[in-house]
Specification:
With 668 residues, the chain is an alpha/beta fold. The protein contains 30 helices and 20 strands. A hairpin with a 2-residue loop joins strand 10 (383-390) and strand 11. Helix 15 (270-281) crosses helix 20. The longest helix has 21 residues, at 107-127. The two termini are 49 Å apart.
């Protein structure tokens, strides 16, 4: 065991930071799970110093969700390396952003397919004496002739491999000299993600970073590497480690629930059935079971079309009725028999697709996964069968609503797990949500930034509650709050519970916001990045504007608005999810699990977190100044107010419309 100070890269500790690191060190030393709510400015990324001090030759894995979080830890470790030059670290981001090979389809499937064909070709040529595949004229010729849109070989992967004599007989494949050399260089001198492709040149970036990761103390990876069981198991096997020998740090841990439930949910669209029918047409004479499955598809289509008459945009469907309708008048006795046939057909289709350089997920595979998950989840209350109705038709979904089992499995299987976030408040509620009654160490830190640099207010006379949305006086007051807040100098952001409410109040307020540049978050993600960049660049040109956005949307989380980029944020309304039968069923599930606390954990807690994330965009450094406004009287209700961070509760000024204008008018 070494001292935390050995790896702490700063001259002094921030308020509460030393205690946080000591708690993390104890959990790393003794094992177990810790959850730390540490506001921006607490120095939570330095928790890595605690893990290094207690590492005892074990590997450290840091899981992050975004590139900005990845960059934060890269910077932190660069500072640590100034004290400990022997420290070795590397990152692994998703193949989607690392793979230089062109072509259509899913990048993971493409990688799997081209590696399979490349390995077969390289081994065949190695048996004939070509031990350096990248220099083999025959392989080079095959690569040149290859259809670039439907590749069967990967020149980057091939350049990453070579062959040497095996210990007994024949040859074995090993990392190429070029790959090993560059892997050593990237460990000695870390390469930023944006420069990785240029650095790797003709070498596969993923293979290079994986080679480097085997020989490092710390590996930074993305959430899907960790929370997707199949990917995690393959990754750890490639690294040559077992979870019980890994110290795990999860950043921005308030996102774990949504990521895990997303991974464990599966959907099926109407157009998938049309495509599945086309894919089966060529299989009916060649595969036993294809004809029987083909006759099931019209019943699936009929079931989905029946849902088109529903007045609800989202609702639950009965899996028992679904199963009965699909099996009726078919050749199958139960759903398991259909799934068995589909699995066999899927394997054949996937193999044929790979041989032709087609790496898209087929509709038959999506249908197989959906029906398999449906049959597996029929006795698991943590899954709901849901349909959604939109412009493209009906979508069926087997939706996971409880991440606890998977998260407990992941965190509990490691030597220790530290979950950190700036918005893990209240940490005890998150503990119950994630781990139930399991023993977990929790810690909540105060805000380390100067109080005098922030103003926090909460309105007591407005609400976006459904029962008040048609109230003209309430609507007028909300508009007045928006106008008053927008009149302050500097860039301002106003967040709403939904696009519908955003567009409604933007229509009412924007005509009155003169001499202000207005930016409204687009529903289309493709347009969001450029508009946001333009908004954030205004202060550098001596200009400012007002941003209308959605809580939990594209402009509200995981972004760093430092300095003058954003001087204030207002959250209009409590951004609760739409209340329907699906939401009621979720609440019933959590009430059964947690009693009276259940509704708060599954329904209100996510809304509070979305609000805190939106407000958290403003104060990113000790020097930043800003106004934080909760424009919703429900934040003053005892249960909601008590869930806000302690420092917000202490500093919050309760206002009506008149007092609000006075308070913000005096803020300088």
């Amino acid at each position: 065991m070494e001292s935390i100070d050995t790896y702490f890269p700063y001259s002094e500790y921030r308020p509460g930071q030393r205690h946080m690191l000591e708690v993390a060190a104890r959990v790393a030393r003794e094992g177990g799970i810790a959850m730390i709510d540490a506001p921006t400015g607490s120095g939570k990324s330095s928790v890595v110093a605690s893990l290094l001090a207690e590492r005892n030759k074990r590997k450290i894995v840091i899981a992050v969700r975004t590139v900005s979080q990845l960059t934060t830890f890269i910077r932190e470790l660069e500072l640590v390396r100034k004290k400990r030059p022997d420290l070795k670290s590397v990152y692994l981001v998703g193949k989607g952003s690392m793979c230089p090979l062109g072509g259509e389809g899913d990048v993971y499937r493409r990688c799997e397919g081209v590696k399979k064909f490349s390995n077969a070709l390289m081994r065949d040529r190695a048996d004939k004496g070509a031990l350096t595949p990248a220099k083999d004229p025959f392989i080079i010729q095959q690569i040149r002739r290859m259809d670039k849109e439907h590749p069967l070989l990967c020149p980057y992967y091939i350049a990453s491999k070579m062959f040497v004599p095996a210990e007994s007989m024949g040859v074995k494949m090993v990392p190429s000299t070029a790959l090993r050399t560059k892997a050593d260089r990237v460990i000695a001198n870390p390469v930023p993600p944006r420069e990785l492709a240029e650095f790797c040149a003709d070498i596969c970036p993923y293979e290079l970073m994986m080679q480097a990761a085997r020989n490092t103390d710390i590996v930074i990876l993305n959430y899907h590497h960790l929370f997707d069981r199949e990917i995690r198991e393959q990754l750890y096997a490639n690294l040559g480690v077992e979870p019980q020998d890994v110290l795990l740090l999860i950043d921005e841990a308030h996102n774990c629930g949504d990521v895990i439930t997303g991974i464990e949910s599966v959907a099926l669209e109407q157009r998938d059935l049309e495509q599945a029918a086309r894919e089966l047409t060529g299989m009916r004479k060649r595969h036993k079971g294809a004809d029987a499955v083909h006759h099931v598809l019209p019943r699936l289509t009929e079931f989905m079309k029946g849902l088109e008459n529903s007045p609800e945009a989202e609702d639950w469907f009965d899996p028992t009725i679904f199963n009965r309708m699909i099996i009726k008048e078919s050749l199958y006795k139960n759903m398991d028999e259909i799934v068995d046939d589909l699995i066999g057909i899927s394997e054949v289709i996937r193999e044929n697709s790979q041989k032709s350089g087609q790496f898209r997920e087929t509709a038959i595979e999506r249908l197989t996964e959906f029906l398999f998950r449906l049959s597996q989840s029929s006795t698991d209350a943590a899954f709901l069968t849901v349909y959604q109705k939109n412009e493209t038709g009906i979508t069926l979904e087997v939706r996971n609503i409880d991440p606890a089992a998977s998260l407990s499995d992941v965190c509990g299987s490691h030597a220790c797990c530290i979950l950190i976030s700036g918005t893990l408040s209240p940490v005890e509620s998150f503990r119950r949500y994630y781990f139930g009654s399991a023993a977990v160490t929790t810690l909540a830190l105060p805000n380390a930034f100067p109080k005098e640099n922030r103003l926090i207010t909460c309105a007591n006379d407005i609400t976006t509650a459904y029962s008040m949305r048609q109230n003209k006086e309430n609507t007028a007051r909300i508009t007045d709050y928006i106008r008053a807040f927008s009149g302050l100098k500097g860039n301002r952001a106003i967040y709403f519970p939904s696009y519908q409410i955003l567009e409604s109040y933007a229509g009412l307020a924007v005509p009155h916001l003169r001499n202000r540049k207005i930016f409204i978050e687009p529903r289309d993600s493709a347009e969001a990045g450029a508009a946001l960049s333009q908004f954030l660049s205004l202060p550098s040109r001596g200009e400012s504007g007002v941003m209308f956005a959605v809580s939990g949307g594209k402009w509200s989380e995981g972004l760093d608005y430092r300095g003058e980029m954003l001087n204030g944020a207002m959250v209009v309304g409590l951004p609760l999810a739409p209340f329907n039968r699906v939401r009621r069923m979720m609440i019933e599930y959590y009430r059964h699990k947690f009693g009276g606390e259940g509704e708060f954990i599954c329904y209100t807690l996510p809304a509070i977190n979305r609000s805190l994330q939106a407000l958290g965009r403003v104060l990113r450094t000790p020097e930043d100044r800003g106004v934080l406004v909760l424009a919703e009287k429900r934040f003053l209700e005892k249960r909601v107010l008590g869930a806000l961070p302690g420092w917000m509760q202490e500093e919050m000024i309760e206002c009506d419309a008149t007092k609000f204008r006075d308070v913000i008018g005096s803020w300088r």
